[in-house]
Structure formats: structure tokens, C-alpha cells
Amino acid sequence: MISQVSYGFLMILASGNGPSFFGLFSVPPLIVVDQPARHLIGELHDYTAWAIIAVAGIHGLADLMHHYVLRDRVLVRMIPVRR
User: Fold this and answer.
1) In angstroms, how far is the first alpha carbon of the chain from the final one?
2) Which long-range contacts (CB under 8 A, 24 or more apart) does 67-71 make?
3) Of 4, 18, 35, 37, whose Cβ has the fewest other Cβ atoms within 10 Å?
4) Above 70 in pLDDT, residue 83?
């Protein structure tokens, strides 16, 4: 998760435009990055996003497997108790 956010900030900084904070003010770019490096940062950002999506999907499937196949009440134990 930290690398995803870091790549996002690097993409903003590498775009040549400084980051803008809600349109109130902007910071001048701190670094100058060439086109191949910008492309690499964008690809790393994309691959990290897909990895996060895959891990979340596998986690959800494991929850469903515990509930429907193994029937070991793991999913039920995760739900908060209502009184």
C-alpha cells in the first residue's frame, strides 16, 4: 500500500507540473524526470494496483471458501455481535 501511494506521488512530481492542493496553491516541481522514467513509474503504479486488487480478491474468495466449503464459521466470527 505504501509503494502504491509513493508511486502516485512520484507520478505527480514527475509530470512536470507541481502538485496542486485542492486548487488553493501549487508547489513547483522538485525533480525533472525524462519520459522513459515517467513511463516506468506509471507501469509500477499500475502493477502495484493490480497486485492489491488480486490480494483483496483472493482474500475474499478464501472467506467464502471458509464459509461455504469448510463450514468452520470463520466468516460468522468476524461479524460483530449485536446485542
Assistant:
1) 35
2) none
3) 35
4) no
Residue whose C-alpha cell reads 492489491 in the numeric block: 52
Residue 48 lies in a domain: yes
- Residue 17 phi/psi, 5-degree rounding, is -100, 140
Residue 52 domain boundaries: 2-16+32-78
Residue 27 lies in a domain: no
pTM of the model: 0.76
CA dihedral angle for residue 58, residue 64, residue 70, residue 76, rounded to 10 degrees: 120
**Letter for the amino acid at 55?**
V
Residue ranges of E strands in 3-43: 20-21, 25-26
Cα dist from 2 to 8, 34, 68, whole Å: 10, 24, 33
Average per-residue pLDDT for the chain: 88
C-alpha cell at 4: 502504491
